[in-house]
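> forwarded from #structure-qc
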C-alpha cells in the first residue's frame, strides 16, 4: 500500500520540475522588457522676445501673447512639454543657431536664416508700417524715397523686413539705425535722432497705447508688403522627422480653425 503514495509523489515532482523551466524561461523576457528605457519625453525649448501682443511677459511675469498661445497649441498637438525663455531677438537667433533653443515663433524666412534653421508653416501674416512723429509730415511714396532725401530709419536688430529693406541696407547702411527694442527706436524718434521707424502694425499699436505715445507717434501711409510668418527651428537640435511632425501639427490646427480663432481674438 505504500507504493501508491510514493508513485504519486514522484509524479508530482516530475510535473513540478517540468513546469519549472518554463517559468524560469519567462524571467529573462520579463527582465528584458523591464530593462527597456522609457520613450524619451518630447520637450520643445522655445525662445521669445518682448514683442507685444505676440509675445511678452504679462501678469505674474508669465509669458503671454498670440504667438505664445500658438506655440502652446502646437506643443499640445504634438503631446510635447513647452519651455519658454525670454531674450533679445538677436540673442535668440544666436541661441537657436547653436542648438540651445529648438524653436522661435514669429520668424520671417530668409536665405541667410535657412543656413541654420528649418521653417514650419507659415501660420500667420504680418505687415510692417513706417511710423513718424505726428507733427512731422513724411510725404514720401516709399522708404527708398525717404532714405534718398537724407532721412534715417530705425530698425530692430536681427529682424528681417523683406527684400526691399535688405537691398537698401546693403546700399545705404548709414541710413538705418538699429536697436535691440522698438521702445528705444521710439525714444530716438521723439529725440529726433531718426525720422521714422519700421514696426509691425499690431506691435506698434500695443506699445504706443501702453506708453501713452499714440499722440506723438503715428503711422504714415508707407507700409511694406504683408509677409508670411513661420515657426523657425534649429537644424542643430531638430531633425527632419520632427520638422515634418511640426508642419503636420500646424496644418491640422489650421484646418481645425484654431489658428484663425486665436489671430482674430488679438485683432479685436
Amino acid at each position: 500500500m505504500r507504493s501508491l503514495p510514493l508513485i504519486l509523489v514522484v509524479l508530482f515532482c516530475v510535473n513540478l520540475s517540468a513546469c519549472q523551466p518554463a517559468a524560469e524561461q519567462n524571467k529573462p523576457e520579463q527582465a528584458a522588457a523591464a530593462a527597456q528605457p522609457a520613450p524619451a519625453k518630447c520637450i520643445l525649448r522655445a525662445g521669445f522676445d518682448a514683442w507685444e501682443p505676440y509675445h511678452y511677459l504679462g501678469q505674474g511675469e508669465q509669458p503671454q501673447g498670440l504667438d505664445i498661445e500658438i506655440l502652446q497649441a502646437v506643443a499640445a498637438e504634438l503631446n510635447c512639454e513647452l519651455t519658454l525663455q525670454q531674450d533679445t531677438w538677436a540673442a535668440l537667433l544666436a541661441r537657436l543657431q547653436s542648438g540651445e533653443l529648438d524653436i522661435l515663433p514669429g520668424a520671417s524666412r530668409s536665405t541667410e536664416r535657412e543656413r541654420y534653421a528649418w521653417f514650419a508653416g507659415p501660420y500667420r501674416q504680418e505687415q510692417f508700417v513706417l511710423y513718424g512723429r505726428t507733427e512731422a509730415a513724411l510725404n514720401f511714396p516709399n522708404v527708398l524715397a525717404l532714405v534718398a532725401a537724407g532721412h534715417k530709419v530705425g530698425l530692430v536688430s536681427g529682424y528681417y523686413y523683406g527684400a526691399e529693406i535688405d537691398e537698401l541696407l546693403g546700399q545705404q547702411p548709414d541710413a538705418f539705425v538699429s536697436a535691440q527694442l522698438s521702445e528705444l527706436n521710439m525714444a530716438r524718434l521723439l529725440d529726433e535722432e531718426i525720422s521714422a521707424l519700421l514696426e509691425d502694425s499690431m506691435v506698434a499699436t500695443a506699445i504706443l497705447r501702453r506708453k501713452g505715445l499714440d499722440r506723438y507717434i503715428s503711422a504714415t501711409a508707407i507700409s511694406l508688403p504683408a509677409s508670411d510668418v513661420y515657426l523657425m527651428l534649429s537644424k542643430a537640435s531638430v531633425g527632419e522627422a520632427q520638422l515634418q511632425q511640426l508642419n503636420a501639427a500646424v496644418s491640422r490646427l489650421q484646418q481645425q480653425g484654431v489658428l484663425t480663432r486665436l489671430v482674430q481674438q488679438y485683432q479685436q
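QC bot note: The longest strand covers residues 117-126. Confidence is low (pLDDT under 50) at residues 1-24.
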